[in-house]
Amino acid sequence: MSTNLDPPTIEAVTSPDGDTPPLTEPPPDDAPARPGPGARTRRPAHTTVPARATLDP
What is the pTM of this model? Predict the structure, then answer.
């Protein structure tokens, strides 16, 4: 039975140039930013609560 006490070995991926590439490629500058899975999205205008009317005459 094997134990998980040893840390996992992580091999670095190197390109032929010897540089380590970034884990995720940054999006191009003209690409729209995509929200993450837990990001809050803005509510559309038709679902916003209207401002309360003042009761002062």
Answer: 0.13
